[in-house]
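Schema walk-through. Below, the input block comes first and the output block second. Nothing else is stored per chain. Lengths vary across the set, and this one has 396 residues.
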Amino acid sequence: MSTTTSYLTPGARAPRRLTTVPDRAGRQAGTPATAAGRVELSRTFAATAARYLLLVAPAASAEIARWEAAAAAIPDRSLRSSARAALRKRGNIEGATLFAVLAPAGHRRAAIRALVALQSAYNYLDTLSEQPSEDPLANARQLHLGLVSALQDPGAPHPDYYAHSPRRDDGGYLLAMLDECRQAVAELPAYPAIASTLTQAAGRIVDFQTFNLSDSQGGHAALARWGTELTPAHSGLAWWEAAAGGGSSLAVHALIASAADATLDPSEARRIERVYFPWAGALHSLLDSLVDRREDRAGGRRCLLDYYATDAAADRLAALAVRALDTTRELASASTHTVILTAMCSYYLSAPECDTAEARAVARALTGALGTPLHVAVAMSRARRLLHAIALRSYS
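--- output ---
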């Protein structure tokens, strides 16, 4: 398939080809080459799923329930509705807590508290930034500064996140979430060693959310300039792929969970960041765009996938998956990170919105890159969605 782009934004450039050529064994570059490697990955997959369901999911559910109760008490009706809608995106909150399987038992609960609070805040702030404002760019930046603030020391002063928002009476809801995250990350033993890396990753999210505007708010011209500046040299990435990587929360989640390990070396933290920015993060954000394509069009927001030429997106997303898998090999917990990456893909590919020809092409391409584990993960994600539907709970 062609990998040339459609030049929908001034300054757009054709991405250089990312290698996805099968090797002599007939596999894609990122998948295990040997039978022993496949067995090891299968064992890790099963162990990770068991650890998550038994040790992480119950604690995550308790945290989500706590924030649901807090959201119900927000005085302003509009903000209360936004907070509840953000918490109904339970799937991506639970996805964030999957990283807690990396955390040692002694600090796992603190990691879960931080992950739930941060992703819930991200969902809430994203919802608010899409609402009308006299200055959409300033409003988006001011709101999303909360994501950086959430990673500062407890007691650090908060700016006025609602400075450009028409409503602000949330009864302390946003500050409570941000302070909860601050207190939780402060309990993680390796946090001081990676604080600057983590803050930088959160800052990229703020920039992405500031510039990712709907057409009525100004469009993607500023996002294109920022994405071009952000693109790593010799990466072969297009600006929208680099921007997608910067807007992903995966690097932040991975670093928070890793900070729970007192033996974490700063060099390992930098390797973890290289997995999730730009490779896995770009894949994450672009899959999110795939699921939200109809909603974005209805809301006048341009989908990042629109910048690909016809039929190019599937190959590019598969190439990103291969690069992400290849970089995980540098990590101490390589197999677990591979499982997390596969689970992330399965969450999006199992969504009801992935019923289009484009989505099916992406699923086939990613299966070629990730192999049989993706089939299993998609089946598990569909089962989980079904259980939530039976319980009349949203799992978007």
